[in-house]
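Budget justification aside, the reviewers requested a transparent look at the raw inputs and outputs of the sequence design task funded under Objective 1. We therefore reproduce one unedited record. The lines immediately below are the structure tokens for a 310-residue chain.
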């Protein structure tokens, strides 16, 4: 692993289309591979403050949880397959101004890892303030080779947990596969993108001058409180019908970052007639947890805002 000023990704270093790391002015190739993992268990819980996507719509609290057992597969490969939110792909303990560029084929999912089980954790309850909601559990059949089991999720409209900084607690009553557990995380403040290269945001859109993505891209957002230890991820996503390319930058939460030109130049220029460019800023807080038979777990609270680039 490179120095502490480069990306310390938990999950991204072994994507099939090898990503490239870019420090804020320098371009640096990522590691070429990761040794096969021994059979292991880990858990990931994400609690996301999300826009409903409808004009004038309310905020939503989106909860997801996975309890995973696997052998010989990289975690990135497993969690990409399961659709884990982008913010949970970084190590929150290592703030940095580095970026990772990644391009992948959306239709290549059938080449998933072997022997991945999503474990039964019983019933999951999400609590905040005086509210309590059950998460749904969904059985994932073996659509992908050797991948199956239970995934958990829930969408709760009108939640004000992030605005009120109310602790969010997930409780699992356990099963013969996963022991009973409880984990709490206090969410970070909501994040709002203010401008992209000085262009204001209106209804989640920014109209940029022609050629703007050929130059360093300055992004500003509402900064965190002084002294806060929150981490932000600035992500530029270029998506076509069957391919997606991203520039993901882990940054200090000071309200401003410029995506380096070296990273932007690695994005493919044309992903087809359906191509869209979207910018996300995500503010993260995370806590680790364990339970009997589950040695490695992480719970993320993620506040985010997004902008379509025109």
């Amino acid at each position: 692993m490179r120095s502490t000023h480069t990306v310390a990704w938990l999950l991204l270093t072994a994507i099939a289309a090898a990503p490239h790391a870019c420090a804020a002015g320098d371009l640096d190739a990522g590691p070429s591979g990761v040794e096969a993992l021994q059979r292991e268990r880990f858990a990931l819980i994400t609690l996301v403050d999300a826009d409903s996507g409808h004009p004038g719509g309310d905020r939503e609290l989106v909860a997801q949880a996975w309890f995973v057992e696997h052998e010989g597969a990289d975690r990135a490969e497993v969690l990409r397959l399961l659709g884990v939110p982008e913010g949970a792909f970084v190590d929150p303990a290592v703030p940095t101004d580095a970026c990772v560029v990644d391009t992948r084929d959306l239709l290549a999912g059938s080449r998933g890892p072997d022997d991945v089980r999503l474990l039964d954790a019983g019933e999951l309850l999400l609590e905040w303030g005086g509210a309590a909601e059950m998460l749904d559990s969904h059985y994932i059949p073996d659509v992908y080779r050797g991948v199956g089991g239970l995934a958990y999720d829930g969408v709760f409209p009108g939640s004000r947990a992030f605005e009120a900084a109310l602790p969010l607690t997930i409780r699992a009553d356990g099963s013969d596969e996963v022991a009973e557990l409880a984990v709490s995380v206090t969410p970070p403040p909501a994040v709002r993108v203010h401008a992209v290269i000085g262009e204001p945001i209106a209804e989640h859109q920014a109209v940029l001058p022609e050629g703007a993505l050929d130059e360093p891209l300055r992004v500003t957002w509402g900064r965190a409180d002084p002294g806060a230890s929150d981490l932000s991820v600035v992500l530029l996503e270029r998506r076509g019908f069957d391919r997606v390319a991203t520039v993901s930058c882990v940054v200090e939460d000071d309200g401003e970052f410029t995506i380096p030109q070296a990273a932007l130049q690695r994005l493919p220029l044309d992903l087809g007639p359906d191509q869209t460019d979207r910018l996300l800023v995500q503010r993260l807080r995370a806590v680790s947890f364990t339970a009997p038979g589950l040695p490695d777990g992480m719970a993320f609270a993620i506040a985010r805002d997004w902008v379509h680039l025109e």
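Residues 75-82 form the longest helix (8 residues). The longest strand covers residues 276-291. Computational costs for records of this kind are itemized in the attached budget.
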